Amino acid sequence: QVQLQESGGGSVQSGGSVRLSCAISGYTYSRNSYCLGWFRQAPGKDREEVSVLDFYGSTSYADSVKGRFTISQNNAKNTLYLQMNELQPEDTAIYYCAAEASGGYCYGDPDYWGQGTQVTSPH
After folding, report:
1. Would the pLDDT of 89 be above 60?
2. 99: burial class by Cβ within 10 Å (0-12, 13-18, 19+)?
3. How far apart are CA 55 and CA 77, in angstroms?
């Protein structure tokens, strides 16, 4: 059973930066393994995909965060990061770490979710 735990959220002034971390346990890094990613849900809105990283190292970003956010993973493959720069009020949301047991590619349908961490960038 994969378990995901986010950390690093908080209130960050507009234009500032923050890095989210996701500790991954119960996870065996092997071929044909997982897609990992970050999703977010703003008040009154549906949850949306922010960025994903497939087993082969390919990344994808929502248009709204391209050039500002960077997804990465540590060498031990047990921590996922989201570096968020140039934060805007529209980035205010609960951010979730997710894993998809997809054979390594990303299909936008995670099987495992973290509890979420709040990121707030006030006007």
Report:
1. yes
2. buried
3. 10
- Rounded to the nearest angstrom, the gap between the alpha carbon of residue 95 and the centroid of all alpha carbons in its chain is 7
Q: Look-up: residue for tokens 């047991």? A: 101
Quick check: 117 and 84 in contact, CB under 8 A? no
Is 82 in contact with 50 (CB distance < 8 Å)?
yes
Alpha-carbon torsion angle 22, 1, 25, 43, nearest 10: 10
Question: How many whole angstroms separate alpha carbon 97 and alpha carbon 58?
Answer: 17
Check if the beta carbon of residue 95 is closer than 8 Å to that of residue 80: no
Question: What's the pLDDT tens digit per position in 15-71?
Answer: 999 999 999 998 775 545 889 999 999 999 999 999 999 988 999 999 999 999 999
3-class secondary structure, 91? helix
d(CA 61, CA 48): 11
Q: Which two tokens stand for residue 92?
A: 């205010």
Distance separating alpha carbons of residues 75 and 62, to the nearest angstrom: 25
